[in-house]
Amino acid sequence: MRPLVRTTKALADENRIRILGALKGRELCVCQIISLLNLAPSTVSRHLSILRNARLISSRKQGRWMHYRLAGRDAPESVAAALKWVLISFEKSSRRVADEHRLETILKIDPESLCRLQTRPEDCQAQRRVQAG
Amino acid sequence: MRPLVRTTKALADENRIRILGALKGRELCVCQIISLLNLAPSTVSRHLSILRNARLISSRKQGRWMHYRLAGRDAPESVAAALKWVLISFEKSSRRVADEHRLETILKIDPESLCRLQTRPEDCQAQRRVQAG
DNA sequence: TCTATATTTTACGAATTAACGAATTATTAA
DNA sequence: TTAATAATTCGTTAATTCGTAAAATATAGA
Fold first, then answer.
1. For the domain that residue A71 is a member of, what is the CATH number?
2. Which segments in chain B show pLDDT lower than 70?
């Protein structure tokens, strides 16, 4: 696929835009993003790979955890410009504000117990409590 | 659909990006865009409605002809910024260069005979000649 | 009016995409 | 080693999107 179209296709999904918004100014591990979007881990992983393929984000592996962050100097000029545009445009939307609010809660939980919430069915109530904010 | 996602989805197709590139600095009627993309009129019309819906382009009806142009002051700030970004990013691609070259040929033909090329089967040879050059 | 024509809308098949669960991989801890 | 676990890949399904042809709409000219 042509690079420009790869960029626009990567941006053409609300959940992927939400991921970019959430990564603004910080790194997040996959389980934190899963918690935010409330989607299956496999779905989130695919979104992340699409964003990384488009060079909008980059990743860092630390033990079992994978940390994602916005692309920096590594991004091509056109991609960096797209990122800048989308972050500014998304910043004031109600969705972005709600996500940021929820992230405050998520960031208070240590990642390890967050991950357990996602795999253990018996903790679903607790997870729902987290999701509610 | 949320406005930002409507914008990114509108941009997530190469043919629609080509339309935006072709409209840079000039108005075009639908038959000229059909000639450029070499797609069915109905397909081109749909692409145009998606772009207009996203407010990336606007239109002007003159008799039977519909003229499209890039959005100007009428576009929301975020849309104008997207347009600026995509035009700059697309400008130097080989696809854009080829399209511009072909547009030179298309613009030499008066729109009326261009439209006839699209509907009259007996003129297919002539059309192919146009497409090749 | 009637006909021709530029464009749009509608209907539908083919291709793509987003979602999930199951299986797999890579790493840590027992 | 073996088990546990964070993340990814794979296979499937449902929804969306792109393309076309055919029908509808709107306008110009006879």
1. 1.10.10.10
2. 119-133
In angstroms, how far is C6 C1' from B115 CA? 8
Are β-strands A57-62 and B28-29 bridged in parallel, bridged antiparallel, or unpaired? unpaired
Tell if the CB–CB gap between B17 and A11 is shorter than 8 Å.
Answer: no
Looking at every residue in chain B, the average pLDDT score rounds to 89
Q: Which domain holds residue A91?
A: 2-132
Q: Quick check: B66 and B59 in contact, CB under 8 A?
A: yes
Alpha-carbon distance of B51 to A117, in angstroms, equals 42
Calculate how close chain A gets to B107, using CA atoms only, in Å. Answer: 26
Q: 């899963």: which residue's tokens?
A: A34
Q: Is B97 an 8 Å CB contact of chain A?
A: no
**Model pLDDT for residues B43-71, shown as the tens digit of each residue:** 999 999 999 999 999 999 999 999 999 99
Task: Answer for A14: CB within 7 Å of strand D.
Answer: no
Angle at Cα A30 formed by Cα A27 and Cα A31, nearest 5°? 115
Helix A14-22 with A94-108: angle, nearest 10 deg: 50
Domain count, chain A: 1
Q: Which nucleotides of C are covered by protein (CB under 7 A)?
A: 5-11, 17-23, 26-28
CA distance A35 to A18: 12
Please state whether the predicted TM-score (pTM) of the whole model is above 0.85: yes
Residue A10 has pLDDT above 60, yes or no: yes
